[in-house]
Each structure stands twice: as C-alpha cells, then as structure tokens.
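chain below, 453 aa
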Amino acid sequence: MPPRVPRTTDPADVDRALFAAALDELVGPALVLDSQLRVRAASRGAEEVLGFDVPLGSSAATLLCGDRPKRPFAEALAGGVPFQAVIPRPGAVASGEGGGEQVRVRSVPLGGGADTIGWVVHVAAVSGDDAEPERFHGLWSRDPRMKQVFRLVEKIAPEDFTVLVRGETGSGKELVAHAVHALSSRKDGPFRALNCAALPPNLLESELFGHARGAFTGAVKDTPGHVQLADKGTLFLDEVAELPLELQAKLLRVIETRTVVPVGGRDALPVDVRFVSATHRALRAEVAAGRFRADLMYRLRVIPVRLPPLRERPADVALIAGKIIEELNARGRRKITQVSVAAEAAMERYEWLGNVRELRNALSYAFAIGDGPVLQLDDLPPEIAAPGPVGAEVTVVAAPPETDAEAELGPEARRIRDALARTAGNRDRAAKLLGWSRVTLWRRMRALGMDEG
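prediction:
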C-alpha cells in the first residue's frame, strides 16, 4: 500500500505521513495511543479498515466504541488490560450504513504494568463467518476455510465411510481423525493410530495385522495388531502413502473382506473397523508414479478432507500462539503475559512450513531462551526473528532452469520466477514486487504448477 504523500511542507503533515507509512510497513493496520488513550499515530491501512480519516488527538474509546452503552474494549483500555474484540465498523456506523460490517481490534501495551506508556491497537476487517475464533476438537481457527472443514467433519463423521485427510506435516491431521471418531457412532470404541512411515516393512506388517505364535523368532504368543485392536472403533493410518506395495495389497483385502490374517496365521479373523487415513502427498500422483495402488486409493479416499496450511491463514497464527503460550505458562518457569508487536509481526509473516508443530517448537524455544513476561523478537529462533531485516543485504539467486511446463505457460510464470530469484525466494517480498498479495502469489503459483518444493 503506497504511503499518503502530504500536499504541504508543514512538518506536522510530513511527520504524520512518515509515522503512518512506518506503521503500515512494520505493524500493519494499527493505531498508536498515548497513556491517556488519545490517538497519536494512525496507519493508512487502519484508516481504510475503520472507514474514515483518523483525527490525531481524538479519544480512541469514543472513536472505536462511540456512545454505545456496552463498551468492553474501551473499558479494558481504560483499565490497562490487553483485550481483543469484534466491533461494528466505526465508519459504517457513523454514516448510518451499518450493513453488518465488523472490525477486529486487539490492544498491545507499550511498556507493561505500571510502566505502560501507551498502546498499539491492531485493527482488521472481518466477515460474519470469521468474526469469532472456534475451537473444534483441539483445533483452533477463525479462518473460514478451516471452519468449512469443521462443518464437513461434523457432517461426515456419523456416516461409516473411509476418510482421507490431506495436509502438510504438523497441520493437525490426527486431530481431524480424533474428531471423526468422537462424532461417530463408534465413539465408545477404541481409537488406534499408526504412523506408516515410522517402522520398517517387516515390523509394520506385524504392528498392523498382528502375528501368530511361531511366525518368527521371538513370536512366543498370538499378538493382535492395530486392525484387531481397533475392532468396533477407528483405525487412523498416518502417512499412508508410505505403506509398501506388498502391504497395500493386504490392507486392501482387509477393507474389502472385513477380515484380517495375522502374519504366520492361517485363519481370517473378522474385524469391524472404520479407516481414517492421512497423507501429505497427493495419492493420485503416487498412483501415477507406480508407488500406490489405484484400487486402494479409491477405497481410502471415499471422503477427502483437505487441511489448509498455517501460512494460508495468517490470522490464526496469533490465535494459536496464544493457546500454546497458555499451555506453556501452566507448566514452565516463565510466565508470558504478552507478545511484543515486533515478535507477533515476525510470526505472522513467517512461512511455517512445519505448521502448528513448528509454531509450538518456536514458542518452546522462546520460553527457554527469553526471560520476563513479554515475549520479545529476540526470543524467537533466528530464522523467524530475522528472515530479512530492513536494510540487510539481499542475495539475488540465479533462477532455476525453466521447465517445459513453465515455458508453455508463458510470461506470467517467468515473471514469478524472476521475482522469486530477485528476492532470494522470499514469497512475501516477491508478492510485493509483483504488486500482489501473498495469497494471490501462492494461488497463481499453484495454478501454474510452481508450488512444489
């Protein structure tokens, strides 16, 4: 968003434009308040979200809450308590338009405790669908697409069909499997989980299907596998794409016949199991590459569920981080009561290729490294705290050789490749270079087949 250029040389106007541009660049849509809750600076993004030019020196409580009888956000500010809320969009209310437009506001103290010298108030436009965060069987989100996943799971859980969850590592696939089980008629039965990538093929076969006495050295008794142990319940097969081909054939027979033959056994034993599988790979691509059986894919993929990665829903980063911090506060030596503006901005712009699991690890690192009640930017791992500081030297890497597919797709693919090369692969800066949002860049790369790797 380009900064507003003042039409005069008045130092006050120049300063206002400078501070507004700095806020937009470093914090995003935000207001800066003094200790008396007067607006001292406002970013252009905040004015667009609120719907009017923000007068400096005005009361933030009146500006955001008007004369409504219930003003919890204003009361929290006046009481010196960090707070977040969803309020009607002030500009729409002032104009009498209404229309249900809402704004999410969140206050962050500058200083802390008795030393608070002011506040930063983050503002963001929201729709009715994502106005409030939702907890769903261990998953937290305010993102509309995640809420669609929640509704889908609620709808499919009572039906006894197989489910395939597609998502990146750390995105919560096992939590979805638990939700399917908990909302099904099998909720009183067992829930078993097995990671197909965690064991070598010989051990995986025994763990999955069980073994008979004498099947191999050390098999001193009949031992049931996960399929039998999940009888009348749900079996979750994580990373099912890693299942060896010979075991895929045996699993297919279990699903088709509802029986299992243990390793070294002769008799087929009846089982009543619902299968929920998960993978970070595209099974159709695995089938095309000859690594996965097509008939098994169709058996497992009756109902597909896709989990969007954390980088596609940046509004969830602070929400999930807050919940993780609460958990760490409950069992750690350090008690974090707030996250600094710089640290939160760094977390929101980070890629999170490991998704929620990586976020949890980063916050655990911050707890161990830092001290005091405020999580500072320097507490975070270096790759998150300083992914590309302003003024740092930028290394321009050579673009990889153009693929045949990119050559056929024309100039847009080349523009994207060039922008990524010029920004050393940083997608945030590449999107700005192209004049797009980060989400637009991701969608176009995905459409062009450029989002792998």
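The longest strand covers residues 102-110. DSSP finds 20 helices and 16 strands in the chain.
thats it, cya
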